[in-house]
Amino acid sequence: MSNLPKIAWIGLGIMGSPMAENLVKAGYDVTGFTLEKDKLDRLAAAGGIAAGSIAGAVRDADVIITMVPASPQVEAIAYGPEGILDNARSGALLIDMSSITPQTSVDLAKAAKEKGIRVLDAPVSGGEAGAIEAVLSIMVGGEQADFDEAEPIFEALGKTIVLCGPHGSGQTVKAANQLIVAVNIQACAEAVVFLEKSGVDLKAALDVLGGGLAGSTVLTRKKDNFLQRDFKPGFRIDLHHKDMGIVTDAARNVGAALPVGAVVAQLVASLRAQGDGGLDHSALLRAVERLSGAQV
């Protein structure tokens, strides 16, 4: 029997599945629940345990990790008679790794405390590749003691792990992250169209740009997407649209101006409106191509 804490994992999507599997590889007992049977089968094949319900997954867990798309889904799995708070044991640690509004995280921590359940908000950055390779950046909000307890789990999932402040702080930092990523992808997309229309060898250009001050993790990770026009979702436009809504709303609440971010938020929204919401966020290139006269 393992002396490591028993983990319940709720949400086995593009990010959640490889992250849960990395915990199994690290020696943790992981019981998972999600709505898609094929994802449960995948977890079981990797050595985890498939549960038939949220209650069944969390009942005996020391640590509960959630990774779902947005605030409504977090609230749906956390609250109510079939939810986490009514079925987890007192003293359990709930780590929400979804990307949601800071206020949702604050409210969840408050409600959980009344049940004797501790909470960390711990959204991640790095996309599907970072999840698979266990090199995610993890930004955490909550109490220091709970962070210290969770740190070995985080170390099985990522490389850059930082406690950013009290409840909601992780989500605030994630919102800033998504702002930077979206603006960076947009700039890369505009550069790609400019380079191609100028007749420059795109691969050579991106290689040299990546080695200079213009280089970034975004350019490194998304270069092949641009070159091959491969927009298989690692992080969907739909989700980045949601995140841009979070950051613009949060910025409004604190009185921070986001002039460039607001424009990129609208470009993300327009791409989604044109039917590209299911594509990777590197598909912002398609929007620039359309604005530049291409038929895509």
UniProtKB/TrEMBL annotation:
Residues in 3-hydroxyisobutyrate dehydrogenase-like NAD-binding domain copies: 168-287
EC code: 1.1.1.60
Top-rank EC class of the record's enzyme: oxidoreductase
Tagged with keyword Repressor: no
Gene3D superfamilies xref list: N-(1-d-carboxylethyl)-l-norvaline Dehydrogenase, domain 2 (1.10.1040.10), NAD(P)-binding Rossmann-like Domain (3.40.50.720)
Alphabetical list of PANTHER family matching this protein: 3-HYDROXYISOBUTYRATE DEHYDROGENASE-LIKE 1, MITOCHONDRIAL-RELATED (PTHR43060)
Protein name: 2-hydroxy-3-oxopropionate reductase
Organism: Streptomyces doebereineriae
Lineage: Bacteria, Bacillati, Actinomycetota, Actinomycetes, Kitasatosporales
